[in-house]
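Appendix C: a fully annotated inverse folding record. The material below is reproduced so that readers can follow the format used throughout the book. The structure is listed first as tokens, followed by the designed sequence.
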């Protein structure tokens, strides 16, 4: 069984070229360093869609249920991306639980 890590960032202005390039670097680094990259879903991000212009990026990744190491790994990736897009409004969830944001620690997993 798996659980879904889902994220969406909202902002009136689309991603700049510099932001998009910085995000691509973050994703590539995390994807290449991911221990289970050959057997797990790849981290993907959906970018600008004219039908929902306020959504500047979004996506999901399916993770093995009860694999807190993978949850932590990918929430760290999202933390790095959020730090690039600080002026966006974010919604991040793991399954049905919304994750909290802490300026020092980044995305916080729901407590069990």
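Designed amino acids, in order:
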């Amino acid at each position: 069984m798996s659980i879904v890590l889902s994220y969406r960032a909202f902002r009136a202005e689309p991603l700049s070229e510099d932001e998009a390039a910085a995000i691509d670097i973050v994703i590539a680094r995390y994807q290449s360093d991911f221990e289970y990259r050959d057997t797990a879903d790849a981290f993907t991000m959906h970018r600008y869609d004219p039908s929902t212009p306020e959504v500047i990026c979004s996506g999901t990744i399916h993770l093995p249920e009860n694999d807190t190491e993978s949850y932590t790994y990918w929430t760290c990736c999202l933390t790095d991306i959020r730090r690039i897009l600080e002026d966006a409004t974010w919604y991040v969830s793991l399954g049905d639980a919304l994750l909290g944001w802490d300026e020092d620690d980044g995305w916080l997993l729901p407590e069990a």
